[in-house]
Amino acid sequence: MAEGKQIECGERMTIEHVESLHSQLESAVLENDHIELIADRVQQCDTATLQLIVNLLRTSKQQGFTVKWIKPSPAILNVAKLLGLTESLELTQHITQ
């Protein structure tokens, strides 16, 4: 396995882009032991994409690879908080009161 892979989340993490993100994540999981989600530019996200990330994080625990958020945007943090997914998405350390 290679060292790590960075995935650029772009500006929109929405259902229109979930299939593309899924493909990128699937390839990254097969070839890497560490994945970084670069999420500082995200302006919109929805439940479909966050559900995909929750499943990725669960799989990472089962299969022994790591997933780390890099600068999750306020949009991601706000939607995760509204949906009660902050802990499931491993975003609690990024939330400031």
CATH topology call:
Transcription Regulator spoIIAA
SSE order, as H and E? Answer: EEHEEHEH
Uncertain parts: none
Radius of gyration: 12 Å
At CATH level 2, the architecture is: 2-Layer Sandwich
Report the principal-axis shape: globular
What does this structure look like?
It is a single chain. The protein has 97 residues and is an alpha/beta fold. The chain has a single domain (5-90), classed as 2-Layer Sandwich (Transcription Regulator spoIIAA). 45% of the residues lie in helices and 19% in strands. The chain has three helices and five strands. It has helices spanning 15-31, 47-63, 74-83; strands at residues 5-8, 12-13, 34-38, 44-45, 66-70. The strands form two sheets. The protein has a three-stranded parallel beta sheet. The protein has a two-stranded parallel sheet with strand order 2-4. Helix 1 (15-31) runs parallel beside helix 2 (47-63). The protein is globular and about 30 Å long. The N and C termini lie far apart (39 Å). The model has no long low-confidence stretch (mean pLDDT 92).
